[in-house]
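Ticket #4471: complex job returned nothing on first submit. Input attached below:
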Amino acid sequence: MGGGQLARMSAAPATALGIDFRVLAAEPEESAAQVIHDVVLGRHDDMEALRRLADGCQVVTFDHEHVPPAHLEQLEAMGVAVRPGPSALFHAQDKVHMRQALTDIDVPCPRWRVVEALDHVEAFAEEVGWPVVLKTSRGGYDGKGVWVVDDAPAAADVLSVPLPAGAQWLAEERIEFVQELSAQIARSPHGQAVAYPVVRTVQANGICAEVVAPAPGLGAERAVEAQELALRIARDLNVTGMLAVELFDDGQRLYVNELAMRPHNSGHWTIEGARTSQFENHLRAVLDLPLGSPAAVAPHAVMVNILGGDVPDLYSAYRHVMARDPGLKVHLYGKEVRPGRKVGHVTVVGNDLDDLLARGRHAADYFTGAIDE
Amino acid sequence: MGGGQLARMSAAPATALGIDFRVLAAEPEESAAQVIHDVVLGRHDDMEALRRLADGCQVVTFDHEHVPPAHLEQLEAMGVAVRPGPSALFHAQDKVHMRQALTDIDVPCPRWRVVEALDHVEAFAEEVGWPVVLKTSRGGYDGKGVWVVDDAPAAADVLSVPLPAGAQWLAEERIEFVQELSAQIARSPHGQAVAYPVVRTVQANGICAEVVAPAPGLGAERAVEAQELALRIARDLNVTGMLAVELFDDGQRLYVNELAMRPHNSGHWTIEGARTSQFENHLRAVLDLPLGSPAAVAPHAVMVNILGGDVPDLYSAYRHVMARDPGLKVHLYGKEVRPGRKVGHVTVVGNDLDDLLARGRHAADYFTGAIDE
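Support reply: We reran it on our side without changes. The output follows.
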């Protein structure tokens, strides 16, 4: 369900494994619909379209979190295998539900509170200190629906924004992190799970800019702690498929920031950097097949997002980028370039992290037009 | 042109690079037509179908060698970029033409002669000794169109087989090889070329069974000799795209057996085992983009073909094969299982060649039903 780049990048392992793969896309121009043979056109909130998608499918799964839970429950009632199931997925759809569930199972989170008005935010800020993070419980992505507010007037401005349908305001303590991490696992219905190396994610303006695998300077114990946390969350919330647990690391402790129950931007490096990509393991997991090895194939991998810039024609960068770096791997999503939009990514794997970072950043900057040599 | 597994496996890099990729397939059930979005249905010898394929394409290239040269010349005359060009491709379509061209540029070949009748074969055998290899100059593949004959009566039987249209009989010296090799290169129209590690190929009944990269025990000097031979052939015959040069190694010298101007079974290991797969470099080469690194990503890679056996449903092997070996990579082609037909392959990469061989062979044998545990 969903025709974005995650569905698009799932096509390669589906083809390799001989798995018939159908995508629901709203428009024929969507990223995945351009390349996948079997496309069902329709909206993700149109029950009739979801039924057409599911007809003849063994399993349905997701490119995004936006399918209404009630629709998914209807599909399940019709006997369709929905993975992850709607009750698990709801934790990735509603941040208040997620915070409550994680708090109930003693997973460390930033302090949080549902707020309805400015005085609630002020009371919360008195406990945790300014700045405070304000989020809409539903409908946010890539930094949208999240604000960091320094004081009461700023909070008042944010609260004047109309809430999406069914959403609440969520106030959270702002964690002074030394780095952000992502712990990805795959889990199958019969309970097998594998944990990928924990990665560092670097955000810019709320959007993932860069991923370094494994996270530098994390230490084996902290990495295992993050993996165990993700495995525990997956088990306790009954997640199937890929789960990404985004974490704040304040140098002392880890705190869960967000959950995503699908392949995730923080795992794009696995296409070249791991024995089994997140896209393949997502398919294997939701089909209840034995999972593939998540082991890294090289000491380091760096993924840098190509964010839309001034150059509308990404292909024009190919001669320069490919000639300069024959080891670089390019992934474009077939999306129209718009400022700040994720339109592709590059990955480099190897032994020398500084070299990989320089190469990955150079290529991404050249694609966007930020540099011209 | 062509909807087989080579086109199918080209879809992944075309998608990653955002290259619009169209395939000509005779039937919608063909391997590539099942998974690629943009399918033109038609036969490879139907000029009208070739025109429909080429309409709007920047470049056309090949999944197989069977498109009539005259058709390709017509396309070129219409301004279509055909890569490799028909005059280069003809060397891979007609073995007599290939032998003559290689002999003209002093590339070592088994001794050869065009023969029309039994007495020609007998005269040739008197020079080179029995057994003699008899081939049809056109239309053979996967061991079809090739016979090893021990004596004159056996040769007479072969010569009674009707020749394909336009074909001649070619007699060749049988090389007592210690191993068969494949040297693959990619070459672009502007003349850039890269050489992949030289691999050992193991044939069974004339069909490639197994590939080991790099070829064990080949020694650096011989490997470079094979690479230089392939690079020279590509340059002198003006090949663009991937070229596979199949070689006999008799322990002393190398002899060219066959040429293929497309991605080749001996390069399937590059999907996981090389920085840039043969499928990606074929696309980059025919589009005249800078080529990707052909370097291996691990000390050894082993590819074992899944040849059709007794088990019609390959998917039924997944639970066992995947649970037993989480590092194994499986590629199925979506083809109906028929005895001896190439229906998929498995690849393993790593440090311990014996371990890789055992794992790859086990998985392939399990898929075909030769073993059941």
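The first strand of chain A starts at residue 22 and ends at 25. Closing as resolved unless it happens again.
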